[in-house]
Specification:
5-stranded parallel beta sheet, globular, alpha/beta, about 325 residues, about 15% strand, 14 helices
């Protein structure tokens, strides 16, 4: 896990170079024939990347984006009308049976299939109308790291072309350099707060929700720590009832319209005596984790990169081998 996560900067650098022409060509086709909606299809870490895609596509392109429920196709054998839509399927392996069933059903129902997949010879790649390889290289750790970051980069590259957003494209070009810096940041201040923890909330909002989801999964997967990802807005409803003195929360906040609400929440939680860790802002009475200044669309992938190093260290501190999580395998064959 540690070695593969450290490879993310180079993976993104290679992906941006290799996919530049095909991403631009795909974006041009989408501009010429705009879909009426976009549907994402993914599981696990890839589904967290799909959450990021939804926020980015809806805010930058104004295109309705929704997440497919694979069980609709794989279990109930139902197929909604997807004529005139695009399905964005995201996968490291491209081999999960329920994902393939969903993509096959969507294609039969009229959707154009765009696949973001690391395994270019996979069944998913062969089903796609358009393929954007992740170029993350071999990923053997059960915990996906560099393929998740590569998925975010591929989404940003496509949207930057599609939206004709030169500023976003320029910010993405700096991502490999910033990822390398993010990997070197020291988040060890979080270890005393989390090594003995049993439960944890991981909080984000907007584009940052996807990294909160990813961090919560990794904490369960590699650290044996029960972690729940929530939007900062959702925490203020029922989940807030569980917050007590010393209850740990990890908050991510990128520098966009959502930051004020997240930092306000962090301050409120700290005032209540909760054990609050914050990445992306300096909030009084919290443990502030160092971050690299970046465009708000790029910031979530930098948070993920720094977090992966923390997750590896936390796993070891809790006496767990991050590369051998119990009951898990690399390719999850959900039916």
């Amino acid at each position: 896990m540690y070695r593969e996560a450290a490879q993310a900067p180079q993976a993104v650098r290679e992906q941006l170079r290799a996919n530049a022409a095909c991403a631009a060509q795909l974006a041009a086709r989408l501009q010429q024939s705009p879909p009426r909606a976009l549907v994402t299809c993914a599981r696990g870490s890839s589904d967290h990347a799909a959450t990021f895609a939804r926020y980015l596509i809806e805010t930058r392109l104004g295109l309705l984006t929704s997440s497919a429920a694979p069980s609709v196709s794989s279990v109930y054998e139902a197929g909604p009308d997807l004529a005139g839509t695009v399905m964005l399927a995201i996968s490291q392996s491209g081999a999960s049976p329920d994902l393939l069933a969903t993509v096959s059903s969507a294609r039969a129902a009229g959707a154009r299939i765009i696949a973001l997949v690391n395994a270019q010879d996979s069944p998913l790649a062969r089903l796609a109308d358009d393929l954007l390889p992740l170029h993350a290289g071999p990923e053997r750790s059960v915990a996906a790291t560099k393929s998740y970051i590569a998925s975010l980069a591929a989404i940003v590259q496509l949207v930057a072309h599609w939206a004709r957003d030169a500023q976003l494209a320029a910010a993405l070009a700096r991502a490999p350099e910033l990822l390398a810096r993010a990997w070197e940041l020291d988040w060890s201040a979080a270890l005393p707060h989390l090594t003995a923890a049993h439960n944890l909330y991981v909080i984000g909002r907007g584009l940052g929700l996807a990294v909160a989801q990813e961090a919560a999964l990794k904490l369960k997967e590699t650290c044996g720590l029960h972690a729940e990802a929530l939007s900062a807005a959702e925490l203020r409803h029922g989940p807030m009832a569980l917050v007590r003195a010393h209850f740990p929360l990890l908050l991510f906040t990128q520098d966009d319209e959502s930051r004020a609400g997240v930092t306000e929440l962090a301050g409120e939680l700290a005032a209540q005596g909760a054990d609050v860790l914050v990445a992306g802002a300096d909030v009084a009475r919290t443990t502030v984790l160092p971050t690299q200044t970046a465009h708000p669309v790029i910031a979530p992938m930098l948070f993920a990169q720094s977090f992966y190093r923390l997750a590896n260290a936390l796993s070891l501190a809790r006496g767990i081998n991050p590369d051998q999580p119990p009951n898990l395998s690399k390719v999850t064959e959900t039916l």
